[in-house]
Amino acid sequence: MSSSKLRWKSDFDKQCIIHNFEKRGWSRCTSDDDWNIYWANVWNVKQIFNPDTGHRLGETQLLNHFPNHYELTRKDLMVKNIKRYKKDMEKENNPIASKDKEGNYVYLDIIPITYILPGDYTLFVEEFRKNKNAMWIMKPCGRAQGKGIFLVNKLNQLKKWATCSKLPFQTLSLKESYVISKYVENPLLIGGRKFDLRLYVLVTSYRPLKVWYYNIGFARFCNEKYTADIAELDNMTIHLTNVAIQKQSEEYNDKHGGKWNTNNLRFYLEMTHGKTLTDKCFEDIYNIITVSLKSVTSVMINDKHCFECYGYDILIDDDLKPCLIEVNASPSLTATSEGDRVLKMGLLNDVFNIVAPNDWLDDSSKHGSNTCKERSVGSFSLLLDESGGEDRGKKNNKKTGGTALWR
Amino acid sequence: MNKSRTPIHSGTFKKAVKDELVKKKDINEDLNSLIPKIMNNHNLDTQIKNKVQEIMEKNRYFKDNITVAKNQFKDCVDCSFLPAFYKEKDFEPLESVANAKKIWNEQIKYKANVVARTVRKPFISAKAKGGKDVPEVPPIDLKEVDDPSCMFIFDQNTLFDSVLKVNSINYAGVMNLTWGSVKLQLQTMSVKEMRKKFNELNVTLRQIGVDDEKSFIDERLLQGDKLLSKDFRPLLINYARRGVPPSLRCRVYKKIFNIEMNPRDYEYYKSLNDHFSKWDLCIDDICNFDTNEVINDEKYFIFQDFIVQVTNLFFRDTWVLENMRSKPHATLTAIIGLDKEVGPFPPNGVLPCKHFSKFVCPFCYISTSPEDIYFIFRAFYAKYICQLHSLNSDSQGIIGLCKLFEDLLQTYEPEVFYYLNQMGINPLKTAFPWIFNMFIGYLEVSELFLLFDRIIGFDTVEIIPILAAAIFVYRSTLIANCTSQEEFEELFYDLSQIKVIPLLQHFLFLAS
User: A359: domain range?
Assistant: First the structure.
């Protein structure tokens, strides 16, 4: 709990945020520029950093988004940055780009095959023709909560989209760009249901990269049993795990909200798949987070006033191999159950403890969001810290000194 | 009916001996020395040892005079001169408990009829096929039932009341020996006996659940693998005492419970499913209705389908009736017409308590295969869970467990106990749900399994009230500072942060 009185501002009327600020004894402020810490929505952040409308942030101001966070959080830009990073790493023969015997990337294979439409349309068609039975998933780049997503298994379904402005499934504007990814048809099923993981990652600086990993995440389950049956291609409650979609299902239960703690998931996987596979799965997840962040370090504007708490969406297939679905800049802070409320309260509490520790306002040598020197705060542990030249992957005993691998 | 384990094939063994003899040109080798060698090669000696251990276990190692005598006089033609316990099944030596059991059985029978009336179905009925036959009475919406007590046969409160009612007939009541609410003066373990019995939990020995650093876990994994390949059950049971690493639990539990999962077992599971599709038990409805509440728990909701399936099949399995260590109540007999006896109702001899499916929940973590889950749960119930619901004078019956809890609390923290009594608070009332439910729904799943490991390893449920007492003793200062019932209840509202093994170790070996 901070002893100094900070002024806070929030664009969201959420219990987790307001309660966290209030219990610290910080005071609310509504003015445009007199705040110390601002939990803003992305539109307002855009205005702040807009050269015409914005203003320079003061020494004692903290903002919860990086100016160009969309390099990571927009689906098309993320894909572009990861592809670019892969090429760069390979060109300079960095060990991170190493491949295994079958020619697959060991570390850099973090997303399924993805193309940006309409630009990469021809490339996509070439890939599509290689395996005509595969399913692909179309996602609009700029939207959230599962809106506008649909599955495709025939080229003519796309051709219709390309030529007319009204889709059988929903209306959309042609100006919007989409990404199309190879659909993971064999997700890991538990209790017959598909799920994905929501993990929280805090970044307080991009250059040098400093990443905090929240130890408690949750798995979001579909309410209906999974089937890859073509007849059910349109049934989004089977395929999409977004809470907004699942809430529409009859089976939705608000006692648990379809969310399962990752600790329980890990325990279950250890019991049923063994320790080695489970540990490898989680190591791969840490790798996904690290690689995705490293791929944007060069393009991110590293404003010291900024920090960002991302919501990572990760899908695990039935070989226990995880892949990245997307990174959310504004993960939902609405609590869907009691357990969820406790989690999100704790998350924000720890975020504020990291970015605005007790002596932050008083100590004039400390500025910006990246002042915390601890290895772990609350349920956050330091996943990656490139500032001291030393590198610590989580639970990683095998790293031998050199930063060469993780450049 | 599932006959117990695969018999050692004498035919194949003879053949093996013959083959060896044919192979060996040198027939000088004595058959006497050849046979043990062949047995070893085919792992038959371990199988025989395991079988012997199984028989010993089933007969409680013949420690009990009654079991010994029963075996001696097994083939006796005329048993009229023998004492009562030969003729009565589930004989209860203490008169007061026997009376309580009689009353309890009556209650159960009454409630079973109430439930059948509530769901408007006979105990067992054939299921309508293909929906062509319109049922005479439309299925009733169980949410509309007025009186909630019609929806279950017994729950933890009714059992709790029955436990407290059991009186000592020959108790003069002059001296107040114990402060607890259990009136029956059963003898319970002393602290010294406890320490001896649970010696493997000593602080001097490393445990899974306390010392979970990589080197120790690797060591346990190695040892576990070796023991699994050796296949000798008593060693595995001993191994479980210090905790089983999560990745080995499925295999270790299966070996300890003698579950082989050969084609015959899968067939048996399928036959239970067939029974389910053909016959409707009136308790199916209340169980399934109950399960909807059980799966509100965020730890278990994903396994809903498995839980429902396992629960439904469980009540159709006659194996349970034959292999239960103790019967929670007298078996009801299903009758057609006026007097034609059909068989036990339900087929497994046990009627469900409220939220019965809760007991199935944790086992869904143990394997992805429903058959594994089913057989492991069934074995666990037959050995341990049934005792938690049985009114008898056994030290592992529910009365004995309650008495143990109270005696431990009084021994370790007499001031706290006295203080609670002054305030009119009964500590057993708080601890009873924990004991009745085996802490399911209160502890985190990983901690639950640490507890199960020890229950299996020490082959006793006494560790459950010991844990309950340990929790009380651990929070004794906080209890002493309570000034009201509400404050007291708040202290024990949330057990999700409890770490079972350090607590037990501290309680057994460090607390004075």
Answer: 1-111+187-407
How far does the CA of residue A265 sit from the closest CA of chain B (Å)?
Answer: 9
Partners of A191 on chain B (C-beta within 8 Å) are 302-306, 364
Rg (CA), chain A: 22
Tell me the CATH number at A152. 3.30.1490.20
Q: Both A171 and A200 in a single domain? A: no
Interface predicted TM-score of the whole assembly (ipTM), two decimals: 0.88
Select the residue of A221, A253, A271 nearest B249 (Cβ to Cβ). Answer: A271
Count CB atoms within 10 A of the CB of residue B410.
17
Query: Which chain A residues touch B if contact means CB-CB below 8 Å?
Result: 190-193, 195, 221, 225, 253, 255-261, 263-264, 267-268, 270-276, 278, 337, 339
Together in a domain, A234 and A379: yes
Count of domains forming chain A:
2
What ranges do the domains of chain B cover? 10-86, 390-510
Whole-model pTM: value is 0.88
Looking at residue A355, which CATH number applies to its domain?
A: 3.30.470.20
| pLDDT tens sequence for chain B (512 residues) | 333 334 456 677 777 777 777 776 555 667 777 777 777 777 778 888 888 888 888 777 777 666 677 777 777 777 677 777 666 667 788 888 989 999 999 999 999 988 888 888 888 888 766 544 445 455 667 777 777 788 888 999 999 999 988 887 776 666 666 788 888 888 888 889 999 999 999 888 888 888 888 889 999 999 999 999 988 999 999 999 999 999 999 999 999 999 989 999 999 999 999 999 998 888 888 898 889 889 899 899 999 999 999 999 999 999 999 888 889 988 888 888 777 888 888 899 999 999 999 999 999 999 999 999 999 999 999 999 999 999 988 889 999 999 999 999 999 999 999 999 989 899 999 999 999 999 999 999 999 999 999 999 999 999 999 999 999 999 999 998 988 888 898 899 889 999 999 999 999 998 76
Q: Measured between beta carbons, which residues in chain B are less than 8 angstroms from residue A225?
A: 305
Measured in degrees and rounded to the nearest 5, phi and psi for residue A10 equal -140, 135
Q: CB of B221 within 8 Å of any CB in chain A?
A: yes
Chain A hits for B247, CB-CB cut-off 8 Å, are 270-271, 273-276, 278
Indicate if A117 and A107 belong to the same structural domain. no
CA Rg, chain B, in Å? 25
Q: Identify the domain boundary among A158, A183, A208.
A: A183
In the three-class reduction of DSSP (H, G, I as helix; E, B as strand; rest coil), residue A219 is classed as strand
A358 and A348 inside one domain: yes
Search chain A and give the residue with CA nearest B303.
A191
Across the interface, whether the CB atoms of B246 and A275 are under 8 A apart is answered yes
Pick the CATH number of B390-510 from 1.10.3720.10, 1.10.10.10, 1.10.472.80, 1.10.287.70: 1.10.472.80
Same domain, A211 and A353: yes
Do the Cβ atoms of A343 and A305 come closer than 8 Å? Answer: no
Mutation site, B248, B294, B297, B302, interface A, largest A CB count within 10 A:
B302
Q: What is the 3-state secondary structure (H, E, C) of B435-504?
A: HHCCCCCCCCHHHHHHHHHHHHHHCCCCHHHHHHHHHHHHCHHHHHCCCCHHHHHHHCCCCCCCCHHHHH
Question: Are residues B443 and B451 in contact, defined by beta-carbon separation less than 8 angstroms?
Answer: yes
Do A173 and A225 lie in one domain? The reply is: no
Collect all residues with Cβ–Cβ distance below 8 Å to B377 and sequence separation of at least 6: B310, B314, B359, B360, B363
B302–A191 CB contact, under 8 Å: yes
